[in-house]
Amino acid sequence: MTAGPRQAYRDVVLTVPVTVPYQRYSIDAAHWWFGAALRQLSKASGISHKDMDGLCAASFSLAPDSAVALTQHLGMSVRWLDTVPLGGASAVASIRRAARAVESGDADVVACIAADTNHIDSFRQSLSNFSRFAQDAVYPMGAGGANASFAHLTRNYMDRFGATREDFGRICVAQRQNALSNPNALMKKPLTLDAYMAAPPISDPVHLFDCVMPCAGADAFLVMREETARAQGLDFVRLTGSIERHHSFPEDPVQERGGWARDVDDLYAMAGTSPQGIDVLQTYDDYPVIIMLQFEDLGFCGKGEAPEFVRSHDLTFGGDFPQNTGGGQLSTGQAGAAGGHLGVVETMRQLMGQAGDRQVSEARRGMALGFGMINYERGLSSGAVILEASA
Amino acid sequence: MQDNQTPDTVLTALAGALASGGVQLVDLTRTLAPDDPTIVMPPEFGQSWPVRIERISRYDGTGPAWYWNNISFGEHTGTHFDAPVHWVTGRDLPRNSVDTMPLEPMLAPACVIDCTEACDKDADHLLTREAILDWEAQHGQIEPDCWVIMRSGWGDKTGAEYANLQADGAHTPGPDAEAIRFLVDDRNIQGFGTETIGTDWGQAGHLSPPYPAHHYLHGAGKYGLQCLTGLEALPPRGAMIFAAPLKIKAGSGSPLRVIALVPGGTD
Amino acid sequence: MTRPVPPKKNPLLRTQVPLLPPQPRSLRGHLLIAAAATGRFALQRCAECGTVAYPARDACSECLSPDLPLTDVPAGGTLLSETTIRNTADPYFRRLTPIRQGLIQSDAGPQIIAFLHRDCTPNGRVTLSLKLDAGGQPVVFAFPEGPAAPDAEEDPILRELTADPLHARILLTDGRHPASVALCKALLGAGAAHIFVGVAERWKPSAQIDALAAVEGVELIDLDPRDERSVMDAAADLAGKIEIVVNSAYHYRPGSLLDSGAALRIKDMMEVGALGLVRLSQTFGAAMMGRGADGDRPALAWVNLLSITAQLAHPAAVTYSAAQAAELSVAQSLRGMLRGGGVRVVNVFHGALDIDWFEQVPPPKLGAGALSKGVVDALKRGLEDVYLGAEAEDFRERMDQNPKEVERSRWT
């Protein structure tokens, strides 16, 4: 089997980035967060939710429901429906599915929503039920959760490539600085490298500020054809390239690259650009080590060069390599599966000039990345989209 | 029965005597308890169950307002009665089981032969014909149809001391073959009683015939009473023993409450 | 054996309630219990292509064969990376942090996440083992390769996965078991603090009981498992301070189904075995269940000495077989109950013992020393089902292969 050329996206656009402000804990169900997000989409777009004919939902806390139950719950009548349970890769996957749906005319307006609630014990429960392999072969060995799983990846990366805690700290400190200009970020206090280094260990070498804070929240946007957006008078960004890969490189004893490394050429070819053409980058930042993998796998530097890369670049929105300009999940909070959509709506805002105090100047082309599903000892899902400003 | 007494005056007099203490009731029974020693057979033979008491309820969820137990034990457990059918020599006799035996033997006079001094000195003490004759010389001839009871002092003992099992078996006092033959053939007693676990001597398996008390008593339709206690309250003669076994169908014996009627003090 | 004797319990402090580690496992994940219970390192291996599958799978990821039987595999491995879990949302593990966890490249093939023994060295060689956790579910524990350090058993996670008799107060329920003296000596040799030995019908003299009484560290107590009150009385004194029960109730009598009195024999043996175990469970078992996390001296384990006839009737001992089967059934229930308290139930299966009842049985027979050694070993390794001696091992292997063959050949 040889891969044929992929068809380019023809006039697929994303519009109306919305965020339901995150909360550390919520007494409401995920359905409440879906409702709030859909309401914002409807208000901001002027399209009644009853007229939206596609829905793509991502959530870890919607059980026992899936997207189909949401249609009745929220009064939608759609002709295209998907549930994307891919954690941090959900946003990219949602865009890819919705894009082909609107392109083919299977749907005209697809609401892509990620929403999760966070009750006081729901984090522990979702850890213990995360996957069958985790349930059988990870969680019973100390219940370290994602912290322990990423600790192995981090330890291995440090051993193999000489990364230090300070290198990870530089990323976290820069993102916190970005977050201070994002009113939706849950973390509102500045973070110094000293404070980062002095933080307590959680699962060595992962320390407190390497970990995202679970929270409740929702992010959403609409996917449609450019003609639809223009007819509605909506500002938009164009989708120009995407990749998605699951369970890549099983031969690596410990994960030190994601599926991006396999498909990166395809991504840039489709979008007709290169790493140098990316003005603003939203990596998937569940742990800083994964950010380093993305810098390498997406070609911003070579394999093993990310530590040096972060030492020599300014990652803030005003810097030479604007990255996670809203603070990322590390400073905004991780709303379950919603975290994957955070980077997409931030990229859209940057490209649409809606990023307020943290606006990156001359942001014409942006990349949003997704990573997720530590099914066993490695993250299975990775994805990326390249978006371009409309004008 | 004295000449001036009719049956109903006898009973009336007895009631009065019991009320006044002229006749006293003495309990000759060991408490049925799980750890009281029982007869032990070689392990390849079947074993008699010891006493088991299992609670059905005690004012609790299995019976809110009542307390009761299920009990189980072998027929030859605790203070118990041996019927003739217990031994092979008595197997063909009429009315040889506890449910068919006549009532009369259940209330009968007792002759008590005190052997405590000898038994204190020698756990293997044997009651002989000569000893019985000596007793008769002092207390008069043993009458037919009475219980002859060998008082050994064993009823005061408990546990290991009571069973007194050694590597070569039990060492407890009892009658020799000649003594039992004498009581059965020459005195026609109705039964023989002991304080030890059996009517036989502890080492009676080595006598000829083995277990002569069981052999001769039951072969002649006589009864056994064992594991008695409290015999010090009984006079050598003059006591009546009430010993009625449970009416167990085709039963070979039964634990029972043994009560003696003894002459009281003069007051 | 370097751990000092635990201090006496502070009566002002709350007794920690038992908690369990995460218990859910997939259907296939339960396969590993069979290996962990018997101390084997076995994983699923594809019968078609030989690929070792872990975590447990329903299809081989190489060839998609569904035929993935549990198979003994090499236990070696190399540590790829490690972490020390200092923070967890799980209440059971919160008590045990910091917890060392490794990602291991197993010689068998798969990467395996395992608890790391404290003596494991970074990127060093390890020996993997399957253990049962406090709730009886399978986990992987990695030892450093090579000979164990003198105090290796003191690893805090390993202690959760085993029932080392060191400093334990033990109840041996039946001093008349033919191996009771050897059992007591072996347990004391393993560091047991004190052994209470139950004796029923003390009035029955026994040279063995006299010998037991002479063993330092052994204390004879009145205990007749056939008698409800006797068990309750003993439990009233002792149930709160027993860490390990060794249920040694032993009442063997041969006999066939047509023997007169067969039913009575079964009943007698059941009084000792199955019903005795019920009475002991209700008293000592209930107390231990509440003490599964009792500070420095948690209740650890309950050992049942059982015959392989519990699993398959033997023509020479029909009545005994029936009684043993009933006892095994009660033991399984007890295991289910005690798992809730983090207390393991170890069923030790043996064949003919080397005692006079089995004079006519040709060797191999199981001696008291081997039985005792096996019990201590099972406790120290945290095993759940143990087959001691050549006869029992042979039985297990053949039963694994074809139980009907064993049944037929035994009864011809």
TrEMBL record, chain A:
<feature type="domain" description="Thiolase C-terminal">
    <location>
        <begin position="262"/>
        <end position="374"/>
    </location>
</feature>
<protein>
    <submittedName>
        <fullName>Acetyl-CoA acetyltransferase</fullName>
    </submittedName>
</protein>
<keyword id="KW-0808">Transferase</keyword>
<dbReference type="InterPro" id="IPR016039">
    <property type="entry name" value="Thiolase-like"/>
</dbReference>
<dbReference type="InterPro" id="IPR055140">
    <property type="entry name" value="Thiolase_C_2"/>
</dbReference>
<dbReference type="Pfam" id="PF22691">
    <property type="entry name" value="Thiolase_C_1"/>
</dbReference>
<dbReference type="InterPro" id="IPR002155">
    <property type="entry name" value="Thiolase"/>
</dbReference>
<dbReference type="GO" id="GO:0003988">
    <property type="term" value="F:acetyl-CoA C-acyltransferase activity"/>
</dbReference>
TrEMBL record, chain C:
<dbReference type="Pfam" id="PF12172">
    <property type="entry name" value="zf-ChsH2"/>
</dbReference>
<dbReference type="InterPro" id="IPR022002">
    <property type="entry name" value="ChsH2_Znr"/>
</dbReference>
<dbReference type="InterPro" id="IPR052513">
    <property type="entry name" value="Thioester_dehydratase-like"/>
</dbReference>
<dbReference type="InterPro" id="IPR036291">
    <property type="entry name" value="NAD(P)-bd_dom_sf"/>
</dbReference>
<feature type="domain" description="ChsH2 rubredoxin-like zinc ribbon">
    <location>
        <begin position="34"/>
        <end position="68"/>
    </location>
</feature>
<dbReference type="InterPro" id="IPR012340">
    <property type="entry name" value="NA-bd_OB-fold"/>
</dbReference>
<protein>
    <recommendedName>
        <fullName>ChsH2 rubredoxin-like zinc ribbon domain-containing protein</fullName>
    </recommendedName>
</protein>
<dbReference type="Pfam" id="PF00106">
    <property type="entry name" value="adh_short"/>
</dbReference>
<dbReference type="InterPro" id="IPR002347">
    <property type="entry name" value="SDR_fam"/>
</dbReference>
